[in-house]
Amino acid sequence: MICKNYVVTGEDVDDFMVMESNAYISYTLRLLYHFLFANGFSKEKMKTLQLSLQEGDHVLVNYKNLMFTEQFSVEMKHCCIDDKINIKSYFFNSKNECCAEVTKEVEWFDPVRKIVIASPKQILQHFNPHFIV
Hints:
alpha+beta; six-stranded antiparallel β-sheet; 41% strand; elongated
């Protein structure tokens, strides 16, 4: 679906130089924003539409540690955009071994009214071709 390459930085690791759990979630969200941007929904456009994202539940399954300065890639293999956004990302080391997978739920949020909202129709129409107004 979409894939990006990264390097584990000092901000991502614990005292043992192993990538921390919150870093996996952060990279998953970065990839989601990149995916939205690639599909015409930049952060600026979302701000104009008075849309934001609010994090929900997540599940991290770690198979192998990613270490400080190690190159890795994140691949979003599943993204379902409905009233909530459900994504599944996989993390691969430079040997292309699957090191972790993240399942993440994100909700649409109106920053002006400060409430979680249903997906706007213009978003559903763009990502769900079977959606009828």
